[in-house]
Amino acid sequence: MTKDKNRDVGKRLSQVRNKLGYKQYQFADMLSTSPASYNQYENGERTLSWEFVHELHIVFNVNLKWLYSGEGVMFSAMSADTNAPELTKEIERLRKENQELKDELIVRFRQLVDNQKK
Predict the structure, then answer these.
(1) pTM of the model
(2) Higher-confidence position of 12 and 76
């Protein structure tokens, strides 16, 4: 992809994230990519990987035609059996659980370091 195309796709990616109300690092985590890579995607400095595009479509139902061309609507029509609010709540619950685990590991690591100093 050209730099201009990457920049256009990055702007639309930013629109999706902002529409959903996430910070870059949160969105990156939900899409299984590093914050640095995500930042490069959004700034048009890097071409989106197919794995990332797949996750974006599966997790957030982003219309890929819109993402790449700007044509159509941001989100694909949801099937009748999809319950978006429940999925969003579950994603947020898992993100919070992940953060709580990270916080607990930091506390335990600090305790270990403190005990070794004694």
Answers:
(1) 0.66
(2) 12
